[in-house]
From TrEMBL:
This is Amidohydrolase family protein. Pfam families: Amidohydro_2. It comes from the Bacteria. It comes from Paracoccus marinaquae. InterPro entries: Amidohydro-rel, Aro_Compnd_Degr_Hydrolases. Residues 18-285 form the Amidohydrolase-related domain.
Length: 293
């Protein structure tokens, strides 16, 4: 499928949602409260919209970048700018008050992110909240506000702490294709357990293929991708990770990633489910059943 064919198909699908993007602003306007683990780009909402327009992507899930830690000012301002076209995933720990959670949900933040990914030196990624914060009453508090958890980390580490997550009884989304080990192969017990959890409807997975390999040669991921789609397409959402910070190779493009997805998922109804219907339901976009016309 060439670019023109991809654009035509994307326009026909309509309301495509990129479920994992980041916004970065001028540091004088929105200072970063911590020392970043990487050099943040300048990637404001206007840049996001320009890149997305080239791929006919119209909705977004804005994920709080780690350099802003739990300062949600830019995230809230970006959601206000995008109005009904976006939802937010924020950062907040177990000391967060019910009043604070109420305020951010009104701003369009529907989930919180918990991170188990480490820096190369083994230290925790700065500006993040660990999965362990879901223990005790915090998970119950998120459930009370209708929020879900989004988790970024190696699949093995996530599975090791899965009992903590299960006890929260809230929806869980695994970032970056669930962080499985490509080199371990599809038959590895962790990937097989992930497939079983998907079949049971116990978890959601973001199909963000660009974070499982370096560069833009994704052929090795096709069998894993097919397995996930076959396991339960009702629990999959599509994502790019635009603007591709800390990318270990040639960064992809939004339109290139969408073209790759549509090549791998040629069935129109299945593609619409993952690109439009599932994110509308999970992130509560407006319209009947979360959908617009």
């Amino acid at each position: 499928m060439n670019r023109a064919e991809t654009a035509k198909r994307a326009q026909a699908i309509g309301n495509i949602t990129d479920c994992h993007v980041h916004v970065f602003e001028d540091r004088n306007r929105y200072p970063m409260p911590i020392k970043p683990a990487y050099e943040p780009p300048f990637a404001p909402v206007s840049s996001l919209l320009e890149r997305a327009a080239r791929a006919s992507v119209s909705r977004f899930v804005l994920v709080q970048p780690t350099p802003y830690a739990d300062d949600l000012s830019l995230l809230e301002a970006s959601l206000a700018t995008l109005r009904g076209r976006a939802r937010g995933v924020g950062v907040a720990g177990k000391s967060t008050s019910p009043e604070a959670l109420s305020r951010i949900t009104w701003a369009g933040i529907v989930a919180l992110r918990f991170v188990e990914t480490r820096l190369p030196n083994g230290e925790r990624m700065p500006g993040t909240v660990p999965m362990s914060d879901l223990e005790g009453g915090f998970g119950a508090l998120l459930r009370e506000f209708g929020m879900h958890a989004e988790i970024w980390g190696p699949l093995a580490d996530i599975l090791a702490q899965w009992p903590v997550i299960e006890r929260t009884k809230i929806p869980v989304v695994l970032d970056h294709m669930a962080g499985f080990n490509v080199e371990a192969g599809r038959e590895h017990k962790d990937f097989q357990r992930l497939l079983a959890m998907l079949r049971d409807g116990a978890v959601w997975v973001k199909l963000a293929i660009c974070r499982r390999v370096a560069g833009t040669d994704y052929d090795v991921l096709r069998p894993f991708h097919d397995d996930l789609v076959e396991a339960n397409s009702e629990r999959l959402i599509w994502a790019t990770d635009n603007p591709f910070v800390r990318y270990p190779g040639t960064p992809p493009t939004v339109e290139g990633l969408l073209q790759q997805f549509l090549d791998w998922v040629p069935d129109e109804a299945l593609a619409r489910r993952i690109l439009v219907e599932n994110p509308a339901r999970l992130y509560r976009f407006p319209g009947p059943s979360g959908l617009t016309g």
